Predict the structure.
Amino acid sequence: PAAENYNISLLLDLSDRISLEKNPNPTMEYYQRDLGYIKSVSESFTQHLKSKRIRQINDKMQLFFNPEPKDPEINSISEKLKIVIDKDNASKDLLNSINSNYAAQTSKIYESAL
């Protein structure tokens, strides 16, 4: 059977929902919870890619924001998180870098938005 291709879009809510002053959460801050969800999605995406034959790989994952971030650097960070993997660029190094890249870059986005 043909392997499914993933096309994942993540929407980050950078509104005051993540504000530590307006919405404190003694259990776990909302942005930390979001980072956990993002980590889970990127790990699943990576596992999916590693389970496919290289010639079958044609998958995408990207990030969007709402509202638009005040810091223009966030938009350049999001460009680094647009991942398009196909048979021509799939490599072990690329697959192994996805999780750490997503974790580090999304953390930067939230730090900037807070």
